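To: structure desk
From: M.T.
Subject: fold request, one chain
Message: Could you run this one when you get a chance? Sequence is below, nothing fancy, just the single chain.
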Amino acid sequence: METILIEGQNGNSAIIVDERIEELAKYLPKKKLFIITDKNVEKHYTTVFPEAPFFSINPGEASKRLGYIESIYRWLLENNADRTSFMLGIGGGVVCDIAGFVASTYMRGVEFGFVSTSLLSQVDASVGGKNGVDLDGYKNIIGTFTQPRFVLCDTRLLKTLPHEELVNGFAEMVKHAIILDIKLFEQLEHDCIALLNLNQPEISKHIAESIRVKASIVTADERESGIRKLLNFGHTWGHAVETLTGISHGKAVSIGMEFACRLSMEKGLIGNKEYLRVINLLQSCGLPTRMNIEPNKVFDALVKDKKQNANSIDFVLLKGIGVPKIETMALEELKKFAEKRL
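Reply: Done. Structure tokens follow.
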């Protein structure tokens, strides 16, 4: 077991890797507890839930709508939740986004924590204090920066995940290595097969390493005014692809990372050898790197992305594996490259 700490402006967040869900009670404060989960997790794990009322959402991104969130607020009111209550999200990325957002906004904010049940949420969605919901198909356009009190990552829970859900998590693990740690990238290349099979100790080691990368960035820049923008590598283009096609987050981010690497190569920042190393690792993890899609439609989605400023956008490129570069690019330049290369 390992604990990784994020130091936030309004409190710290402890991410506990390889703690068992059965030990959850020792991390809970002595407060009235409310649980948000989803129907898949409910089916597998309610026997180990703490004794508390729970709200079970429908799995998937469609639940991250404000209209749906209202029903959770009403449920909390009906069950007499107040500012002294504690909210616990037990689930994957969608559950963590919703639970964190609801907790951060209900009665101007109550304490919360997560039990993260998917690989994507263990290495990314539950870590860092970003909590958001969607509007008109645009991801996380409404949200908050609030750190969970704790995130419990029981790697045994990953065994119930379908292969596609594991693949989603690998995209974020590869991203963390690409933007900050070439040695971690090399370890991923070496351990890829073991990770796909959820072998120990490899899976726990890599989850902890990936969290450590993100935690170091978030601690340095909690509200994304500088270095935290590096975590958007692959996401600006990837979110637009995800919005348009409905493919899973990890697959869309993988396509976005390929686009960013190809653009980096076009600008002379990396060579073909580095580009192919990234592509080979993504594909070895079962992730796609290209998709037939109309570039102008991608741009209609991209220009509404929350990371743009007027007619330019902060785009994360690579100068090498483990050596990122944030470049403010004119949207027109990005559009011309997309039309030329797709």
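Reply (cont.): The chain has two domains: 2-160, 164-199+225-341. Let me know if you need anything else for the meeting.
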